[in-house]
């Protein structure tokens, strides 16, 4: 076998192994989610997942070191899925800074609202688990703040975190039971109180 043939052979072998690994991870996530929705995070074991997949536990450990890693991957993946419109956020052409911030925050809040209304049990399961694991909460916060920074060009992450927390009444899971048919109307009322700050930032950028 000449040098180029060897390279082609190993490239094919690597790609096959990589794709096989990714497929196995996806299957693990699918099975883990199904079991968690049925039994809850606390009652599902790696043995349950391996048994459902008909693989050995050592085979499972090739992808995840422990149960916490599986839950972390599952939960961060869920957050990314429900906030996909923000990763990245596509601002409309010629929007002002305050308009971008408004639309970004509304997209975040509406995404959480829809996730809660469409699958309340799943919403409760993942958000409650995230509250118990600071790494997941930090991951989601950083992901959202970076998204807003990219959309606005604002590098002051402290100001962007402030916007995130100011809107928490409409995207934090602890308030979900109070989200009703007046959700958007209430959001717009709250935005009127927040907007002047971002108009001020806009004026500073122009000066």
From TrEMBL:
The keyword DNA-binding applies. SUPFAM superfamilies: Homeodomain-like. It holds the Pfam family TetR_N. Coiled coil: none annotated. Residues 45-64 bind DNA. GO terms for molecular function: DNA binding. InterPro entries: Homeodomain-like_sf (IPR009057), HTH-type_Tx_Regulator (IPR050624), HTH_TetR (IPR001647). Keywords: DNA-binding. Residues 22-82 form the HTH tetR-type domain. This is TetR family transcriptional regulator. It comes from Lactococcus termiticola.
């Amino acid at each position: 076998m000449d040098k180029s043939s060897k390279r082609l052979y190993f490239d094919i072998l690597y790609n096959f192994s990589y794709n096989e690994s990714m497929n196995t991870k996806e299957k693990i996530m699918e099975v883990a989610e199904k079991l968690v929705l049925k039994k809850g995070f606390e009652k599902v074991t790696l043995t349950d997942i391996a048994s459902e997949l008909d693989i050995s536990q050592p085979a499972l450990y090739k992808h995840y070191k422990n149960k916490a890693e599986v839950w972390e991957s599952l939960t961060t993946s869920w957050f990314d899925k429900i906030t996909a419109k923000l990763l990245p956020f596509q601002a409309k052409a010629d929007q002002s800074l305050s308009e971008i911030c408004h639309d970004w925050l509304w997209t975040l809040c509406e995404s959480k609202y829809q996730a809660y209304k469409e699958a309340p049990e799943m919403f409760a399961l993942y958000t409650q688990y995230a509250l118990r694991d600071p790494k997941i909460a930090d991951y989601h916060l950083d992901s959202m703040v970076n998204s807003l920074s990219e959309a606005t060009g604002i590098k002051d992450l402290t100001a962007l975190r402030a916007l995130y927390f100011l809107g928490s009444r409409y995207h934090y899971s602890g308030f979900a039971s109070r989200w009703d048919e007046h959700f958007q109307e209430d959001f717009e009322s709250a935005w009127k109180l927040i907007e002047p700050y971002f108009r001020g930032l806009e004026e500073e950028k122009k000066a």
